[in-house]
Write a structure and sequence with these properties.
One of its GO terms (molecular function) is sigma factor activity. Belongs to the sigma-70 factor family. ECF subfamily. It comes from Streptomyces lasalocidi (Streptomyces lasaliensis). This is Sigma-70 family RNA polymerase sigma factor. Residues 29-95 form the RNA polymerase sigma-70 region domain. The chain is an all-alpha fold and 193 residues long. The protein has a domain at 9-106: RNA polymerase sigma factor, region 2, helix turn helix motif (Rna Polymerase Sigma Factor, Chain: A, Orthogonal Bundle), CATH 1.10.1740.10. It has 8 helices and no strands. It has helices spanning 9-19, 23-45, 48-64, 76-101, 108-130, 133-144, 149-156, 160-180. It is flat.
């Protein structure tokens, strides 16, 4: 059994293949993460073409700088999501700042509020997508179908105590979306960049 803090084998091998310049590795990485990257970029930017641009930027960056990912720092998926988030937030800030400079509506404070809001929403989406299916199922029942823990337990076929545990854990994880996007939050995926 591998040590708990050892990086996943696929992540390590992918980083090595990218560092060797294997075009097939980039294709495999794109197939695995393109929908995640595009979805997060779109969530932050709210624009299809801008999300397409960020998706290209992320994979170009990964191709040109494979050494910037360190498998010992965490999963490749999280690193790619963090890179996407930073680039998308920077694009949102840049376009908002340019619009303000041209005399567009709003204030710098409103722009920063919009950036923080988009950051939290993207982080929450990522957290939900990354949850194990049983945890996500309990949250979806509670949120989308307005089930309480007893109804969720019956629908899923688990004990009420297990349903409460899953809902509590899911909500705790989601609460980190807001914490990570707060000013002064530690670096990594989720900060307002």
């Amino acid at each position: 059994m591998a040590k708990k803090d050892a990086p996943p084998r696929w992540d390590r091998k992918m980083q090595q293949r990218l560092a060797r310049g294997e075009a097939a590795a980039l294709g495999e990485l794109y197939d695995r993460f393109a929908s995640l990257v595009h979805g997060l970029a779109h969530r932050v930017l709210g624009d299809e073409r801008a999300a397409d641009g960020i998706t290209r930027e992320v994979f170009v960056h990964v191709w040109e700088h494979p050494e910037s990912y360190d498998p010992n720092e965490g999963p490749l998926r999280t690193w790619v999501a963090g890179l996407t988030h930073r680039l998308a937030v920077q694009r949102l800030r840049d376009t908002g700042t340019a619009a303000l400079a041209r005399g567009g509506p709003g204030t710098t404070e409103e722009l920063e509020h919009r950036v923080r809001h988009a950051s939290v929403a993207a982080r929450a989406d990522y957290i939900v997508q990354s949850m194990p299916a049983p945890l996500r199922a309990a949250l979806e029942l509670a949120y989308f179908q307005r089930r309480d823990y007893r109804q969720a337990a019956a629908d899923i076929g688990i004990t009420e105590e297990e349903a409460r545990r899953r809902l509590r854990l899911g909500l705790q994880l989601l609460s980190t979306a807001h914490d990570a996007a707060s000013p002064g939050a530690p670096p990594g995926y989720g900060g307002a960049a």
